[in-house]
Design brief:
By secondary structure, this protein is α+β, with helices and mostly antiparallel strands. It has one domain: Gcn5-related N-acetyltransferase (GNAT) (Aminopeptidase), CATH 3.40.630.30. The chain has helices at residues 30-45, 56-64, 118-133, 147-156; strands spanning 14-15, 21-24, 69-77, 80-94, 99-109, 135-140. Strands 1-2-3-4-5-6 form a six-stranded mixed sheet, sandwiched between helices. A hairpin with a 5-residue loop joins β1 and β2 (21-24). α1 packs across α2.
């Protein structure tokens, strides 16, 4: 959300509380996003991943993927603005309402900026975009063991009326 209200759909940038700059990430952001994607994977797998680390080509492919939206949060640092968090989300059809819904698939904040409103700001900005797009809801999943994130989500959202399931299709990969 901007200081004066929600950011417009597809807005280049908006400013959130704490001086965060929120904007859609573009191909030029791939090198800065890469270490966050790698750290996010490490966090989800608790360092027990399959050894397949993301590279710049993968992150560039992700940023160019049709239908994928990635919002970044930039904080002021001594050396300039630094990417400190991202949310990857989708605009999806919602069959029951015959409208659209948003789905956050991935949300990550670097450890040294956690607790400063980065995740809350990213979610609020996506909510503002969703209102303008006419979404009926914004939904996301959180790992059962991420209790800190769940504390935030319990304050800003309600628990969904469903349970999540997964069928792993590649042996040896799970988190």
């Amino acid at each position: 959300m901007t200081a004066g209200g929600p950011s417009p759909v597809g807005a280049a940038a908006s400013t959130a509380a704490g001086g965060l700059l929120l904007r859609k990430l573009v191909l030029a952001d791939a090198a800065e996003l890469l270490p966050l994607i790698a750290a996010y994977g490490e966090a989800l797998t608790h360092g027990e991943g399959n050894g397949d680390k993301p590279d710049l080509a993968y992150v560039a492919q992700l940023l160019a993927e049709p239908g994928v939206n990635i919002r970044g949060a930039f904080a002021d640092e001594a050396a300039g603005r630094k990417l400190v968090g991202f949310a990857l989300y989708y605009d999806l059809p919602e069959a029951i309402s015959r409208r659209r819904a948003g789905q956050i698939d991935d949300l990550y904040v670097v450890p040294e900026t956690r607790g400063r409103g980065v995740a809350r700001s990213l979610i609020a900005d996506i909510v503002a975009e969703g209102r303008q797009r006419g979404w009926i809801q914004l939904r996301w999943m959180v790992p059962h063991d991420n209790l800190v994130a769940q504390q935030l989500y319990d304050r800003i959202a309600e628990t969904g009326p469903w349970k999540s399931y997964v069928i792993w299709l590649e042996p040896g990969i799970s988190w």
